[in-house]
Amino acid sequence: MSQDNKILIVDDEKNIRLTLEKSLSDDYEVETAVNGEDALNKFKADEFDVVLLDMNLPGLDGMEVLKKIKEEDEEVKVIIITGYGSVETAVETMKVGAIDYLRKPFTPDEIKGIVKEVIERENAELKEEELNSYEDYLRYAKELINKQQFEKAKENLQQAVSLDTSKPEAFNLLGVIFEMQENVLEAQKKYRAALALDPTYKPAQDNLDRTSEFEYDVEDVNLGEIDGVEEEE
User: For the chain, N or C: smaller number of CB within 10 Å?
Assistant: First the structure.
């Protein structure tokens, strides 16, 4: 893995910062920030390919940091770190520009996997006319979701389904889109369709359970995985 890729880790918990830094420093150039203000100062002073950003920060919270980072550099890839009880939601962060999610507690392999997948996704520079596999359509659909191009994302997910009708991932992502469009009933149908294909598919079960609660919110939307990397908030 190229050391040319630079990562900014933003978390007020020292143990989390050290875990992330240790997991990534062999493959990437890594800097850390202890709070939102520190993160913005470092972000303005340097260029980063990926930002690992905790939502629950003291002072300037994660959502505000995310907004300011995206104002500075719309193309930077931001992976949100969330924990139990986070007040921010997957829908809100996706609308602002977050691209992936890492939920505490996590393992070093999970950290390495999600960062690697995000960077490879960026380096692949997927173009619509070049898509030819189920995984290609999933990745491209996630880029479109990030840009809030929901209808086009749905079209690409339908293409993924047409290539492989036995996999649940595309249906789970369709459910996520319908949630973002505030159509919970249709979202639940898609989550159930994913589970009909694979009753053990945890992202769809998580999302169905959460949306079925009496008073649910969109916290902990589970985006599923591509190439073995689970992407959940």
Answer: N
pTM of the predicted protein model:
0.65
CB 218, CB 179: distance < 8 Å: yes
Give tens-digit pLDDT for 142-197: 878 877 789 999 999 999 999 999 999 999 999 989 988 889 999 999 999 999 99
54 phi and psi angles, rounded to 5 deg = -75, 135
What is the rounded distance in angstroms from the CA atom of residue 183 to the CA atom of residue 52? 30
Please give the domain boundaries of the chain with CATH numbers for all domains: 6-123 (3.40.50.2300), 127-232 (1.25.40.10)
Comparing CA positions, the residue from 49, 71, 76, 98 lying closest to residue 221 is: 98
Token readout for 140 is 């491209």
- Cβ-contact 187, 178 below 8 angstroms: yes
